[in-house]
Amino acid sequence: MNRRTLLKWAVRGIGATVAAMAGIPALIAGFSPVWQRRPHKENWQSLGPVDEFPVGEMREIVVELPPEEWGEALREKTVYAWRPSDREAVVYSRSCTDLGCPLTFDPGSQCFFCPCHGGIFDRNGERLAGPPKRPMYRYAVRIVNREIVIDLHSVPLVA
Q1: Were 47 and a residue from 70, 127, 148, 153 both cysteine, which residue would form a disulfide, CB within 3.0 to 4.6 Å?
Q2: In what order do the strands lie in the sheet with 140-144?
Q3: What is the pTM of this model?
């Protein structure tokens, strides 16, 4: 074996070793959330009394999150809530279903707009235009003792 062939194989071996040392941990970290099964534990949080939500009016609400649940960086979550009727409440995540950008509600058009790429949703959370393929994320909602409560774990973490 000549020196050129030996150096070529040495460089390939070192390159493969470095790639494996960097790539294998990255693959394990990337797929580990997929392999773990998390049981769905509920976390019900009150949004306030039903009387504070007039029928037909969309409200933006900031929900305080427990620090042990989300860590120091995420103490609050914004949601949109409305009551289509006296006996019903609907609560949407503020995150767009495409890239997770924060949605804004326009009272004039009664639509949600995504500032990142032009996604538009109607007040029922259905997609009207833009790249999002899914409707808005909806929280599980209950009315308990004349208060609207939502399960914070009923939407994906990115929402």
Answers
A1: 148
A2: 44-49, 147-151, 140-144
A3: 0.68
Dump pLDDT digits (tens) for 121-136.
998 989 998 888 899 9
Indicate the DSSP class of residue 51. G
DSSP 80: E
Closest alpha carbon to 152 in 41, 68, 34? 41
Q: If you ran DSSP here, which 8-state letter would residue 74 be given?
A: -
Look-up of token digits 């071996």:
13
d(CA 113, CA 98): 12
pLDDT tens digits, one per residue of 50-61: 888 888 889 898
Beta strands 147-151 and 44-49: pairing type? antiparallel
Secondary structure of 88-151 as H, E, C letters = EEEEEECECCCCCCECEEECCCCEEECCCCCCEEECCCCEEECCCCCCCCECEEEEECCEEEEE
